[in-house]
Design a protein that fits this description.
This protein is an alpha/beta fold and 319 residues long. Helices cover 29% and strands 20% of the residues. The chain has a 9-stranded mixed beta sheet with strand order 1-2-3-5-4-6-7-8-9. The longest helix has 17 residues. This is Acetylxylan esterase. InterPro entries: AB_hydrolase_fold, AXE1_dom, CE7. Pfam families: AXE1.
Length: 319
Amino acid sequence: MIDLEVGKKYAGSAQKPADFDDFWERALAEMQALPLDYTTTAVPIPSRVAQAYDLYFSGVKGARIHCQLILPKNYDERQAHKGMVMFHGYHCDSGDYQDKFGWAAEGYVVLAMDARGQGGTSEMAAVPQGDAMKGLIIRGMEAGPEALYYCSVFLDTAQAARILMNYPGVDRERVYATGASQGGGLAIACASLVPEIYRVQVSYPFLSDYRKAYQMGAQTSAFEEIPYWFQFRDPLHQREAEIFHTLEYIDIQNLASRIRGEVYWSMGLQDTTVPPITQFATYNKITAKKHLLVLPEYGHEYLPKVSDQIRGFFIDADD
């Protein structure tokens, strides 16, 4: 188990590229040039409190991105509703529609995005060169930062937030981002690229501090694809400096300082899937108002009591 005080002082292993901010400004400009067009189709799931829809939009590189859109029943777009953009775990999808109905009952408009090429119906679009057998961090890595899979996915999160903020009846100044594991990393990326995000709630976010994860022996963690790539593509590590430099562009610790919304972060100190030290690399770089919930006996799993503890983060007294 990590020493908590050590974690709170950890500065991360990032070597942020000199052109990092310019790179993401160019990428955002590409995404923002896309139209806000989308299509919706009703999903016939019975509910007294919510109405579900499939929503599709066109993301960067021409990918067709799927989201679940959940509206309160008898939705009135003349009212100001809070919004919530949700992101799922690695290789999965957005889950069951009805899981979001409780938020609709609280008055939220929910947009849950399926990451391209994973368990949902969002498309992968262009397939970059290089090995991608073991995972998605390394997809596009051999072709350079612009080809990285997660560069496109981070932009998808920003575009989803942009669509939600402009949806009729949504209060664009009160949009939340939330997720766990990969979903937590995507929520952090979203709030970094769309600093207008009001609040962010994450559990044990993935996609942080690749160098440190590798140094710790990533073969048994969610970062296993990095040593796998070296084992089969570069066993002599002749491209090691190049590869880790490329991954810096999708390391969320390098984006975290852009966040302006309030953040609630929970982690289990026994986490071996996404080691807490890699999470602290990003958490410690967030300069916005933030809160940390730590469960010393838990790992990468359901964290009990957290949802009840942070309920007020979503349901304000003046709502």
